[in-house]
Amino acid sequence: MGKGRILVIDDDPTVNSLIRQSFHARDYEVITALSGSEGLKLAYRLHPDVIVLDIMMPDLDGYETCRRLREISEVPVLMLTAMASEEDLLRGFEAGADDYVKKPFSLKELEVRIAALIKRNVNNENGEVAYDDGSLRVDLQRQHVYRDNQRIHVTPTEFRLLSCLIRHRGHVVTHEELLREVWGDGYLDAVPSLSIYIRYLREKLEEEPGEPRYILTKWGVGYWFSPVVS
Question: By C-alpha distance, which of 50, 228, 9 is closest to 156?
């Protein structure tokens, strides 16, 4: 399989062909689908290492396709989009996407992003087993998060961000450190994306996201995880 198996879901045959030819030459296996429904079937059957997903498609759009993918798999999802407003990105992250690339896109940038997603997915967190204060419980080995004994769904990227903050709990982790560890060196200018993920984590973990007790902000510097003393 070489460097990894990529599933491309895009209703434009030209885009599919371009990615398939380019990444085959780079020693990736590439499977393509022309619709969201076809892509879901292939994802279930073939277990790709990463999915490249167009947003604007008939039948199922990229947002709905991503939501349905998240019901069956935690595979990293990279969205291709010509729409890159904060609202568009929020919709993608809320649906479960891990990253995005703007159309028209550079094949080199796409390869860097895909390689980073595959690498992060393979190198699962290990070491410390869990954080548990009686209300919030985070199992770093199985990658499960519970609040008041109810499991909370978090995306792979959200989990990497949370586990990074927990491992450095009590200490401020700068924007640059978080971006480098969670996304990679090519993402050091993606502070707006980081803030979006922090917002979603707070909505999932905090009783009052507007007044967080776990994920706190050091303005202009970064974030830190504040353990709750029971």
Answer: 50
